[in-house]
Fold this protein.
Amino acid sequence: QVQLVESGGGLVQAGGSLRLSCTASGSFFRISTIGWYRQAPGNKRELVAGFNRLGSTYYADSVKGRFTLSRDNGKNTVYLQMNNLMLQDTAVYYCNAVLATMPTIEYEFWGQGTQVTVSS
């Protein structure tokens, strides 16, 4: 069974750092896209950062210069290094990926979410 397993959330003071991890586990052919979304209370889920099909990274304007996305292909893992965290970064962070379970069949998967809370 394919799933995305997240870790690394927690409570941090403003200006601090956290690193989130997301590992794709199970049997699949390839990772087509993978990245992070977040959802704060009362808000819609929004894209934070991700790798597109070409392997290029993209970031929401609100996190550019503070968050860095990286990946370890051998571990099927993507990392989100979050620096200089602000109160408005508080949200549940979700890993999202499009995985090919067969060469020409893709499905979208979501992780269970990990809470990031930034305090003043």
Notes: The first strand starts at residue 3 and ends at 7. The chain has a mean pLDDT of 96. The chain is about 0% helix and 60% strand. The radius of gyration is 14 Å.
